[in-house]
Structure formats: C-alpha cells, structure tokens
Design a protein that fits this description.
Number of strands: 0
Shape: globular
Oligomer: single chain
Radius of gyration: 20 Å
Distance between the termini: 35 Å
Number of helices: 16
Structural class: mainly alpha
Largest sheet: none
C-alpha cells in the first residue's frame, strides 16, 4: 500500500484521535531511537580517547560529520517531502545507523571512523525529519504541543535508560560493546515503527499554484522560507545555542577520561542520565506551558540555563559536581527539544514543513560542527576553563537574540487553543 506523504496537517481522522496502537507505536519508536542514538553521544569521545586519539583528531571527525548534517539538512528535508513514505524512509535510515555503529566499533581507524560518522550523520538527519513528520501527521496542528512534549519525555527516558545500560556495558565489558549494543537496538525500533498505522498519517497538502513539482517546489519553498523573518531569527538563535552546547559534555567527558580512564565511561553515563530524567519529568509540562504561556518565555529559560551551565563547568572539575550541573542541561534540553520543532511548525504554517525543518537543522549543524573543533582547539591551547567560558559567552549572545529579536509565535486564535 502506498504510504501517504507528510505535512503539517489538520487531524487526519476527521476529528477522531489516532488509534491506541499507533500512539503507543510512536511512543516506543521515539524511545528506541533515543536508545540507539545514545551510543553516538559522549561515548564517542570516550572511546576515541581510549584509542589514543588527540582532541584535535576527535574534533575533526565530529566536525566533518557535522558538516554532512549541515549541508544535507535542506536536501534531506526536500527528499522526505518528495518521497513521502515516512515509515519506509525511516526504516532505511535506522538500518544505516546500525551499520555505522558496527563499523565504528569493529575498525577504529581514521578512514573507517570517518565513513561511519558520515553515514550516521546522514541517516540521523533523515530519521529526525521522519520522526517529527510522523508525529504531526498523526495528531494534526491542534495536537502538536502536547505530542512533542510526550515525544521529548519518551526520548529522554530512552536516553537515560540507554546511558545507564551502555555505561555499565562499557565499564564491565568494553567500550566497543557500547556500539554493538546500539546496532542491536535497531531491531525493536523497527518493530515499533511498523506498529504505526500508515493509513492514519495525513496526506500531503497539494502544491500551491505556481510552485510546480520536484525541484521547482523546493526552490519555491526556499524562496518562501527566505522571506520568513521569524524563521530566520530563530535560525540565528539556534546557531548560537548549538555552538555553545554541542561540545560541552564531550569536552567534559574527555577531561574526565584524562583524569581517570577506567571510571570515565561510568561517570559520563551518570552525566547523561541526570539531564535525561530531568527532561523526562519536564517535557510534558513544557509542552503544556508552551501552549498556555507562549514559546518565547520558555526559550529564554532554556538559553539562560545553558549560560549558567557553561560557567559552572568552567569553575569546577570535580566529577560528582559535574554530574549535578547536568540538571541544567536537562532544563535546556527539555525546552529546546519541544520548542524547536514546535516553533518551526508555528512559522511554517503547514507549507514546506520538512524543508523548514531542514533549514533549522542546517542552522543547528552550523553551530554544532564549529563547536566541537573550536572547543577542542581552545581546550588544547588555553585549557578547559577558557573553552567553557567561551561557550558560555556564545550562549549569552543567543539569549540576547531570543529576548530582544525573537517574536512570540504561538497562534492565539480560538481554533489553535
């Protein structure tokens, strides 16, 4: 059966809710995807550090993979819009991520590690677009805020559980085993994905008059998005957030590894669990608060927490204090995890949604790709204190942009409420 294409729709079920099986399938799909992606977080820095890689080489590999996300996000968004078969596209992306995990663990030499990171970056970009589109296709515009809060909670719970499990596996078995476990988790993720009924995903909105089809639609969409001032401002703010945020925990993980390589994996796991369970608790409230209070106040809170986290990391190197500081990461992650796709949905207004997602994803890639290599250079040259304070200053710049330039994007019409 042909699967319907994605868009930001009205509810596809003529006023009824999606089936319980589809909603549960989406919950567990989000959970499993988070499990898989956890293996590609700070564990990468720990693993490569134990393989005697320098901080510069680690930063170079992470930066190149970030550039793949950077240059691929917009065409990936256009591709997902064009293909439309969300479940099949997500299936291919999941399998590619599993292959990249096996390659990374089995042959930790520069060419293979680089190839696996590039494959992972491309597949993750496509998978992220499909996940949000599946969510919006199921619940429609009226259910976006609550659904994204629920997604973030399940993603955080999955990351927390996976971090504990992978931390224990890395400590008691080997660092290699973490990535083989990530590859094995592709199987339950595929089962959950196909528990979602493709018939309950809304069909796409037809092209606007004069937009044409194929690449003409993409070019028309890019022109439309380039004229969207709130979207451009939001992209700028997102760049600063990820420029400050992307390298914080990997750098802290590397510092811990240099001090105690045997305990580093376990401590990094703890540093990941704290924010993830914080996100699990806060995300549903963020989804509700974004609808009640608006988007901008919560964005300010998320950016402010990032500034404070950078300063705190700069002032201490005690492992247990670093873990406690990660509560601030949980606050930022809860806010941005819900507010980024929600704000994109607000400003896109149903047109070229995946292309808009790709545009914001491109902004995220710019910040994240520069962050890893820049922080690695600062840490190697001037020390970790300077690197963390530099990231805090960048986060402060983003906070100012949100406070002074970003408009409130919540739709206040009775229908949206």
């Amino acid at each position: 059966m042909h699967e319907p294409r994605s868009r930001l729709p009205d509810p596809p079920h003529h006023g009824t809710s999606p089936s319980r099986r589809s909603r549960r399938g989406l919950d567990w799909f989000v959970f499993c995807v988070a499990d898989i992606q956890t293996g590609f977080g700070p564990f990468v820095a720990v693993f490569l550090t134990t393989q005697k890689w320098t901080q510069l080489d680690i930063g170079l590999v992470l930066t190149i993979s970030g550039l793949v996300s950077l240059f691929g996000q917009i065409p990936f968004g256009a591709l997902v819009d064009a293909l439309g078969a969300l479940r099949r596209t997500a299936m291919v992306a999941l399998i590619a991520i599993g292959i990249s995990a096996v390659l990374f663990a089995a042959w930790p030499i520069f060419p293979v590690v680089l190839a696996s990171r590039v494959l992972h970056a491309a597949a993750s970009s496509v998978l992220g677009l499909c996940l949000v589109s599946l969510s919006l296709g199921l619940v429609g515009a009226g259910g976006i805020s609550a659904r994204l809060g629920r997604n973030a909670a399940f993603a955080s719970a999955g990351t927390g559980v996976a971090a504990l499990t992978m931390g224990a596996v890395g400590y008691y078995v080997s660092n290699h085993a973490v990535f083989f476990l990530a590859a094995a988790l592709v199987i339950p993720a595929l089962y959950a994905l196909f528990s979602i009924d493709g018939r309950e995903i809304a069909p796409p909105a037809p092209p606007q008059p004069g937009e044409g089809r194929g690449w003409r639609t993409t070019l028309s969409g890019l022109r439309h998005l380039a004229a969207n001032r709130p979207l451009l401002i939001f992209c700028g703010c997102v760049v600063t957030f990820h420029l400050a945020n992307a390298a914080m925990l990997p750098l802290a993980a590397s510092m811990l590894t240099l001090r105690s390589s045997e305990a580093a994996t376990l401590m990094v796991a703890a540093a990941m669990v704290v924010p993830q369970f914080t996100v699990t608790l806060l995300s549903p409230f963020v989804g509700q608060g974004a609808q009640s209070w608006g988007r901008k106040p919560l964005l300010i809170v998320g950016f402010a927490a990032l500034v404070l986290r950078g300063v705190c990391f700069a002032l201490t190197s005690e492992p247990y204090i670093l873990v406690a500081i990660q509560v601030l990461d949980g606050i930022s992650a809860a806010v941005l995890g819900v507010l980024v796709p929600l704000t994109v949905a607000d400003v896109a207004r149903g047109r070229h949604f995946n292309l808009a997602q790709g545009t914001v994803g491109c902004a995220m890639g710019i910040g994240a790709s520069i962050s890893t290599v820049l922080s690695g250079y600062m840490a190697d040259t001037w020390g970790s204190y300077t690197a963390f304070m530099g990231m805090a200053a960048v986060a402060m710049l983003g906070l100012g942009g949100v406070a002074m330039l970003m408009p409130e994007t919540r739709d206040r019409t009775p229908e949206a409420a």
